[in-house]
Amino acid sequence: MSGARRRGFVRLAMGLPVLLAAALLAVAFQLGDLQRVIGNLHRLDWPVLALALLAGGAYLAGKLWQLRLLLADLGIRPGWRTLLFAFAAGELAVTLPLGIFVQNWVLSAVRSRADFGRSAAATTVMLLVEMWVALLLLAVVGIPRWPVLQPLAALCACGLVGFVVVVMRRGGRRLRTGRRLVRPGLRRTMVGVLLFLRACRRLSGLRVLLFNTLLAAVYLGMLIAAMTWLGRSVGITALEYRVAATVYAFSLVVVLFGGGLLSQVGTLEVVGMGAAQAWGLSLTEGLALMLTFRIVWTGVMWLLNLPVLLLLWRRVAPRSADEVDETPD
Question: What is the distance between the alpha carbons of residues 185 and 171, in angstroms, rounded to a whole number?
Fold first, then answer.
């Protein structure tokens, strides 16, 4: 592929998610009464925003602790400055396709002895655990007008367990067996994949997964609590916690099943509106819930993460070339 074609492909790959997000938001605005939703935003008061800020802080603290523990299980122990810097960068990019893996790129670029493939295994486990929690919630609670959702969610949860067993625990062994058959030009990529799978296998133990499931349930619970408070504050007074929980869980599952290629912006709004309508809310109420949550939660994430990024920007030194061991066991 020529350089011009490669650059064109990269631009297309970067532009398509943005266009898709804009198209989905346009659909959401058409389905709901956008003017009414914007008019209700003035109902947001400072106590609710303060609660959302506290919930956001608890959410980030839980995720940061989870990332630190998973990296430690892999023998990766970056200093707090490096970890905070990488984590903040990942959280600011999380709404972009594959944006959460920015934290792994940052970790691999500083003095943390964190090869991208190894640290990406920690991020992957975090995403899989979040999906597992969301699927369990949908399997237990369900959504009233979608009776097929509960058995489907249970089936997908079982399939996720099978994925962990087959791919994460055994995939690396088979890939290592065929390593010698790979052309020399692809061996570096193969090494990266082997590092990733080896790290996944180390994180696929029952104790690790159960603890991280509990931790993910706690920090996602704080996010859903903020979503509930915000929805009630803009006029959806009958909004229950379980309604907000299943709406967000279904939206999250759709995004994560897209393999991170779908932008959260637009996708969450449209999917969440549909799930809210299945609970008996109007499309305008669904738009109010999802759009208010998007605006406030994004603001909270930027308010908490951007100062960290700016303060540590010049304090995180680049790694030395000999600090990463890229040879798998």
Answer: 22
Q: Letter for the amino acid at 64?
A: L
pTM for the full model?
Answer: 0.83
Distance of CA 79 to the CA centre of its chain: 23
Rounded Cα–Cα distance for residues 131 and 83 (Å): 24
Question: Does any domain span residue 12?
Answer: no
pLDDT at 98: 74
Neighbours of 273 (CB within 10 A): 27
- Residue 145 contacts by C-beta under 8 Å, 6 or more apart in sequence? 278, 279, 280
Q: Which two tokens stand for residue 290?
A: 């999802």
Please give the backbone phi and psi of residue 178, each rounded to the nearest 5 degrees, phi first: -95, 10
Note down the domain range covering 200: 53-312
Closest listed residue to residue 301, CA positions, set 181, 187, 219: 219
* Residue 28 belongs to a domain: no
SS3 222: helix
Does residue 227 lie in a domain region? yes
Q: How many Cα neighbours within 13 Å face the side chain of 307?
A: 5
Task: Give the chain's largest Cα–Cα span.
Answer: 64
> How many domains does the chain fold into?
1
pLDDT for 219-272, tens place per residue? 999 999 999 999 999 888 889 999 999 999 999 999 888 755 566 776 788 888
Q: In which region does residue 259 sit, left (phi positive, over 0), alpha (psi from -120 to 50) or beta (all else)?
A: left
Q: Do 218 and 64 form a contact (C-beta atoms < 8 A)?
A: no
Residues of the chain with confidence (pLDDT) below 70: 1-37, 39, 111-113, 168-191, 259-263, 266, 317-329
Distance from C-alpha of 280 to C-alpha of 143, rounded to nearest angstrom: 10
Distance between CA 23 and CA 269 in Å, rounded? 11
